[in-house]
Design goal:
The protein is built from 35 helices and 28 strands. The strands form nine sheets. A six-stranded antiparallel sheet has the order 5-4-6-3-7-8. A hairpin with an 8-residue loop joins β27 and β28. The longest helix has 23 residues, at 402-424. The radius of gyration is 35 Å and the shape is globular.
């Protein structure tokens, strides 16, 4: 524990984990090491008793649309193997079992007919050869008779006139005919005839029962013999949407294709066609098409005044696809594309184009052959759409025969164990098809934890970076149970944490401090939780003892009467009639993980307002209307995405303070005499930067099949600047020295420069004084990135009422830093702005002017507003988990 920047991550990750991982990697061969992450030896004299280490860090979920919960937890891999080994393929046309028929199986099936039935063994000609060549080939093999079941007629080939189409569709060659007898001789004759027919007929035969007038087909190809539809044989690759063998050929395994987006064409599904539900047809230019649409609906009995959402799937399909007399909505857009030489048509088409669910695979990502394989009556697309809780029950209750049980026993055990962990940790509402990048921080952390647990390692050091991020106080107990389970297996758990509820249950606490950056890095306390309250230098201890507290406002801001209202929200799991966001207030959206907070704030509030302002690049949730958006001038989303991914992005460049610092150096006497402009002191453009590394500070050496090697630039020594630029000093410090300063040090150094000091003071205000000005942005944590963004907005001179949206800004923050953060956010509101925060931290919730609490639970059991109002009002709710946490926080029953 310890304040942000006190050295917790450096101790846990850059020292303990780095050395544990390095020792393990060094034990492998040189060939194996090239594929693993290279970790530099930590700057430590010795570490004794260190076991192999695993780190579960705060990495952002992968943005790859191919990464799902199923693939990241490896459950999908077990399901692929399960379906490949015991799955049964069913024909999608007739529902028959798809198999490879053997002569013995065909003979056994025929022998079940009544004794005395007359049986004809038939086979079809090859479809790929000219009919003349095929007849000649049959004569060579001794087959001179053809049979037409529809006419029940055997004829000599030479006695009939054949047309290729007639022959192929209705005529068979006759291989043998016999009367059924239940004896070995007949069975042997039938088997031999079928085997010969299979060979000469290319793997397909037909058996005609003349007595019962029944045609039975068999095939030794993996296909439906009755429908002649060939399927792929089940194998693990067939069920992988990341492999060409299994991916839907139309969407390449993405589950979505680019096309006309239904949500853009019909944004308000409560409207009818008569009331302009199809917004593109509102234009006077297309009134004729609207009339055709209404006439087409009336012709087949669809009420054009019926709301779109009340239409059946069949009626919706008619609207979009049309029929012979009516082209439908898709036909209208096809007309626009055919006339795309007109610029207005191109503009209209682009407005309504987006990603839509693949029509061919239904969004399942898999080809038909994979979708038609079933285990226990379910196929993989059905399983991945189930909640993890329901999937666990399905696996638990799966009934298999003796042979299938032997094959699948280990697969089912592994799958069941992983699902059980995910359910126990509170993620039973998720589905395997959920894309990884749509998960909240807390959900990602818990999935990583469950995956680590699934490996059942013992004697291992687990290093966790704030596993409580994104977790509602209700879920803390679940997290602790998982951590205790890991510990009790014989592992060591090192957790970097700020949550007092988790710190309270630690076996041993190492508190870093006393402050951040150069003023931290020391162990100010180590021992049990009971004694930390009396540790004099520990800020954590002062908050535990109550000596320091995050101030709670004595009075809540009164409503101004201005608010943003959103109606009829039904996106994802949300089902809300009306959501109210009071303006010029601190609004906190709360609820358990998975209750719909991000959907409401990101996909509905933010995206909805951006769409109204003319932005069409954001995906918008489903709702009927937004009111009150005219009361704000701007909207800003401040999330935890990195402020920059390159070595060139730093806190100094992002907040623009570096521009002012360069101006100061350009104004020095030496710079003026040399005619140097501010650009000379930038490492991003030619001038004073080192041209060998182009201002990167390092040079990358391409090692072809080995990992690229980064070396410190020999010319500039990693400083990024030429010797001439480094020799120009301001008050005895070069531009390199300034970039190596912390924000606190720079504020002291540039105390005489008001504009620079203003920007630096704002970063100090949000608790970032310990950061170095030149630290690469890619090395900042999610919480630090968010606060750098907050600092840039606090300093911004943009005039006008702005709605700021923050996504869990307390991530990575100590209680002392949260106190500073709340001061900064309150100052934003005092300047006349509005703030909406998605948050689980009880201290932030307690300081809110207005709370919107979603729930009551997660997934399908959530998505509703269970309580709203001031904390005092929400606290009285009996169904809200947030209300219970508030009552505990304020010490009320």
């Amino acid at each position: 524990s310890g304040v942000s920047g006190s050295g917790k991550s450096s101790l846990a990750f850059d020292t303990l984990y780095a050395e544990g991982q390095r020792r393990f990697v060094e034990s492998l061969s040189a060939y194996a090491r090239q594929f693993l992450e290279r970790m530099t030896k930590p700057d430590v004299e010795s570490i004794v008793g260190l076991p192999p280490a695993i780190a579960i860090a705060q990495n952002s979920p992968p943005r790859n649309p191919r990464s799902t919960i199923g693939t990241s937890t490896e459950i999908y891999d077990y399901l692929r193997l399960l379906f490949a080994r015991i799955g049964v393929s069913i024909c999608h046309k007739c529902g028959a079992v798809v198999r490879k028929d053997t002569p013995q199986f065909a003979a056994e099936t025929i022998m079940n007919f009544p004794e005395g039935d007359k049986i004809y063994v038939l086979f079809s000609p090859a479809l790929s050869k000219p009919i003349g060549e095929e007849i000649a080939r049959m004569k060579e093999h001794g087959y001179f008779r053809v049979y037409t079941p529809t006419q029940d007629n055997v004829e000599e080939i030479d006695d009939i006139e054949l047309k290729a189409t007639d022959f192929v569709s209705s005529t068979y060659f006759l291989a043998d005919r016999l009367a059924l007898k239940k004896d070995a001789e007949t069975t042997t004759q039938l088997t031999d005839s079928i085997e010969a027919a299979f060979v000469i007929g290319g793997g397909r035969i037909a058996i005609w029962n003349q007595t019962q007038q029944v045609l039975k087909k068999f095939s030794n190809i993996f296909e439906c013999a009755d429908c002649d539809i060939v399927y792929e044989e089940p194998e693990p690759r067939l069920f992988s949407f990341n492999n060409p063998k299994g991916a839907c050929p139309h969407c390449q395994g993405f589950g979505r294709t680019t096309g006309i987006d239904e949500d853009l064409v019909i944004p308000d599904k409560s409207l009818s066609i008569m009331d302009d539900a199809v917004v593109v047809l509102k234009s006077p230019s297309f009134i004729k098409y609207k009339g055709d649409l209404i006439k087409g609906m009336s012709r087949i009995g669809i009420d054009p005044e019926k709301p779109y959402k009340s239409l059946t799937e069949h009626e919706k399909a008619f609207l979009w696809e049309g029929d012979k007399k009516f082209s439908g909505i898709n036909g209208f857009f096809k007309m626009l594309e055919e006339n795309n030489y007109k610029i207005q048509y191109r503009i209209i088409t682009s407005r309504f184009r987006g990603f839509t669910k693949c029509r061919y695979c239904g969004g399942s990502r898999l080809r038909t052959s994979a979708r038609q394989v079933f285990v226990g009556g379910k196929n993989i697309p059905e399983l991945i759409q189930m909640s993890l809780g329901n999937l666990y029950q399905y696996i638990l209750n799966l009934k298999l025969n003796e042979s299938e049980s032997k094959i699948a026993e280990q697969l089912i055990l592994e799958t069941r164990a992983r699902l059980e962990m995910l359910v126990d940790i509170g993620l039973d509402y998720l589905t395997l098809s959920r894309m990884s990048h749509t998960l909240s921080g807390g959900e990602s952390q818990r999935i990583n934890l469950a995956t680590a647990l699934g490996s059942s390692l013992v004697g291992t050091l687990y290093v966790l970076d704030e596993p409580s991020i994104g977790m509602h106080p209700r879920d803390t107990d679940r997290l602790l149970r998982i951590l205790f389970k890991l510990r009790n297996l014989g592992n060591t758990i090192v957790v970097v944490e700020h949550d007092l509820d988790i710190i309270r249950y630690a076996d041993f606490i190492v508190d870093m401090g006393p402050f951040a950056g150069a003023h931290g890095g020391e162990i100010v306390y180590s021992g049990s939780f009971e004694d930390i309250a009396v540790a004099k230098e520990s800020l954590t201890g002062k908050y535990v003892s109550g000596e320091l507290k995050i101030p709670i406002p004595e009075k809540r801001r009164k409503p101004t009467g201005k608010e943003i209202c959103i109606y009829d929200i039904s996106h994802n799991n949300l089902n809300i009639e009306k959501a109210v966001f009071p303006l010029k207030s601190l609004v906190v959206v709360t609820g358990v993980s998975g209750s719909g907070k991000s959907t409401l704030v990101h996909n509905v509030l933010y995206s909805g307002i951006k769409r109204l302002s003319g932005s069409t690049t954001v995906e918008t949730g489903t709702f009927s209307k937004i009111t009150g958006e005219e009361n704000i001038k701007f909207i800003e989303l401040v999330d935890q995405s990195p402020v920059g991914n390159s070595m060139r992005s730093t806190p100094a460049t992002f907040t623009k303070v570096f521009d002012l610092i360069r101006d100061v150096f350009a104004q020095t006497q030496a710079a003026k005499q040399l005619g140097l402009r501010p650009g000379y002191f930038s490492f991003n453009v030619p001038g004073g930067r080192c041209e060998t590394c182009e201002g990167e500070g390092s040079v990358t050496v391409d090692m072809q099949f080995l990992p690229d090697v980064k070396l410190v630039c020999e010319v500039c020594g990693g400083t990024r600047f030429k010797k001439e630029a480094r020799s120009l000093l301001y008050h005895g410090k070069s531009i390199v020295d300034v970039l190596n300063m912390t924000i606190d040090e720079a504020a002291e150094f540039f105390a005489a420069h008001a504009r620079i000091l203003t920007k630096l003071n704002i970063m100090q205000k949000v608790g970032l004084g310990y950061l170095k000005l030149g630290q690469p942005s890619s090395m900042l944590s999610g919480g630090e990135s968010q606060r750098v963004r907050l600092a840039s907005h606090l300093e911004s001179s943009v005039s006008g009422h702005t709605l700021f949206i923050f996504d869990e800004p307390t991530t990575g923050l100590h209680l002392d830093d949260i106190s500073k953060l709340l001061e900064a956010i309150q100052s934003l509101i005092d300047k006349g702005n509005s703030v909406v925060i998605i948050e689980h931290n009880i201290h932030v919730i307690a300081t809110a002017d207005w709370i919107i609490d979603l729930g009551p639970d997660a997934g399908a059991r959530g998505g509703q507003i269970v309580a709203e109002g001031t904390p005092e009002k929400v606290m009285k709710s009996k169904t809200s988990y947030t209300a219970k946490a508030l009552r505990d926080f304020f010490g009320e029953e």
